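Render this sequence as a predicted structure.
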Amino acid sequence: MKSEINKFGLWALAWPIFIEVFLQTLLGTVDTIMVSRISDDAVAVVGLAGQLLNALTTVFMTIAGGAGILIAQKIGAKKGEDARTIAIMGLTVSTAIGIGISILLIVQSHAIAGLLNLSEELLPLWDVYVSHIGGGMFLTAMIAAMSTAIRNTGNTTAPMYTGIAMNILHIALNYVLIFGAFGFPEWGLFGVTVSGNISKFLAALVLFYVFAYSFERKIQFRDLRIFDPKLFNEIIRIGWPLGVNMSGWVFSQLAIYSFLAMLGAKELAARTYMNTMESFCFMLGYALALATQIQVAHLYGASKTHEAYSGAFRALYIGLAVVTANALLLFLLGSHMLRMFTTDPAILAMGQSLLALNLILQPAKELNMAMNNALNAVGDTRYPMVIAILSMSIIATGCSYWFGTQAGWGLIGIYCCMIADELIRGILVLQRWRGKKYLLKAEKGANHKTGGEALQDTALPI
């Protein structure tokens, strides 16, 4: 029992996620620097394509995310066999969706560029990148489903090691295939797609091995045919609002990137560089928020509602302190970091003007994500979905278009709208969590089963 409690402690869950995200972000920065050696246009294409791929990723993350929450809840409720079945369905359905997305991106990359207002001079690079990296989206779906399932069993170290290895291999292959090192052909942006797909394929193989041994009974290949309609309905019940929420956010970001594309390639490149640097601010806050979701779901499944409630606030306070400190550090050092990516004076000026706004943006994002994840963990996914769709449609997207492109505020106006969206949603989900709707309902049900006896909570593991 003690080992299980430690396994689902906040720090035990968070530190491997943080290390994984930190090194992925660091290697992603190196990746961006490598692509910038091709051209600033290549960076702009990769930035816009990244938003598109993130948007499409949310389609299969609807299944993977819902399955992950349920896995932690079922393990907390001592229903290991149900957790195993849910994990299998999460993998098979997510992979099927990923295959469909891969086909779409291979066949329709040019048409999608038109929908995103991509300028003509960027089309050749876009077609090369999207059609090839998009063909590997089914691998991304497999990795996401298996990593999510493994993490929600309490094992956050295996995805960490796999992610680190995948990204190191990707960077090494980038060097070889972009620049033609060691006698290999000099493939430029096409080389980035080849190295990405090779590294994802090998990561998927490693994760499947770990996935197979993550439950009480080993998962065999023949088990991939398992489908339980009742449990799948539970996945959909939690997952579809989660997916709509994620899709709304990513599509709003995609719309914002299309507005930036309307402003020009320099604005698009500046936002891409800033997004890379901002990731360093947010990664520990993100790790704490994700760890909170896993821990709260496990405690909720075990009917430890008081611990779940207080644990979410503990993680929020820690996350806000860390994210604010990191944002301040970036404010002080950001101008020097920008020069690692580009020497274009216009891009440098735009990037430097956003550093002060980032001091407000990052804490607002942490508040929103931490409280959102706590609500998701107990199955309260519809309320965050509704307020997210309204806020992102009206404030993040609508106001960004008006103030950024029509009123002439440009990149500054778009950033202000992003801050307003995150802050408003964060305050609303905070109030929802304080209302304890799902926690009180679960506590009432648990008290009824135990004849009205009060629930006994042990000390919350840190």
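Summary. Residues 452-462 have pLDDT under 50 and may be disordered. The longest helix spans residues 40-76.
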